[in-house]
């Protein structure tokens, strides 16, 4: 592959852990990251900091939208709220029901694609993102999500093209600029990526969601890493966790930043935090266990896969993972 100016490989670097299936259900994780040069100026009275704001687990609602009412019916916003509450199994069922009931629901398709992307189901994410674009050919968010899906799955030219279309359709959409920035950085166009990040910052308002604010910080961290500023990367990711402390993805991403700095203890602590946020979601526990195993953090892996086996006591793969991690933990002790 090509090489970015910072010396790291071009590709879906923004994932803190890009998971790829290997053999009998084991996974390998590759750390990704990138950078920051300047600190983001967040609104001091943003919804995430104001008195009476939604609890951390709420995550700020659907990316780019205000959080749904607690009593709202099944909608794309409500499904996204399940994601931010770490109820991934419920979110999966909700999104599947939404797109089955209305195949032309652009918001549901785009939200489902973004969710599957976080779950590393890139084939499924691509299908949903393409369906969102087909149903909404003038919808900027559909193209923005396609941009991120292509980026994380390794189709960098496709990601750049989709991101360019997204910002052209809606120059005021924060996530379009952020996802485009990520793709441009992965393509080696660091200066252009910084310009897109700068534009996203100018679009932040008091109504910007926690997710939007945290994604600005995450992209700052990405670009800091590209500039060789690994401490800046960690600082930006820490701030993103503070904005969404209840969402499992943020401490998981922070663990990747710590690993970029060879700070194994802090990476372990971040993974432990992520584990504490996913006590009974099988998909999350399996992902976190696999991440821990690849980083030789056998204590975290044993904890994750032990919980997974308790949730799936008749599943052979879960029992095998639990046995392997326990043996690794006890042998390493």
- The ordered string of helix (H) and strand (E) elements is EEHHHHHHHHHHHHHHH
Number of helices: 15
Strand content: under 5%
Number of strands: 2
Strand order of the largest sheet: 1-2
Task: Indicate the percent of residues in helices.
Answer: 55-70%
What is the mean predicted local confidence, pLDDT? Answer: 80
Q: Residue ranges: pLDDT <50 for 5 or more in a row?
A: 1-72
User: How would a textbook summarize the main sheet?
Assistant: 2 strands, antiparallel
Judging from the principal axes of the Cα atoms, what is the shape? globular
How does the helix and strand content classify structurally?
mainly alpha
Q: What is the radius of gyration?
A: 19 Å
Distance between the amino and carboxyl termini: 38 Å
Please, could you describe this protein's structure?
This protein is mainly α. It is 61% helix and 3% strand. The protein contains 15 helices and 2 strands. Strand 1 and strand 2 form a beta hairpin.
In short:
α1 runs parallel beside α3. With 333 residues, the chain is mainly α.
List its traits:
single chain, 333 residues, two-stranded antiparallel sheet, 15 helices, 61% helix, disordered N terminus
Topology diagram in text:
Blueprint: E1 18-22, E2 26-30, H1 76-84, H2 88-101, H3 106-118, H4 122-135, H5 140-152, H6 156-169, H7 174-186, H8 190-203, H9 210-226, H10 230-243, H11 249-260, H12 264-276, H13 282-294, H14 298-311, H15 316-332
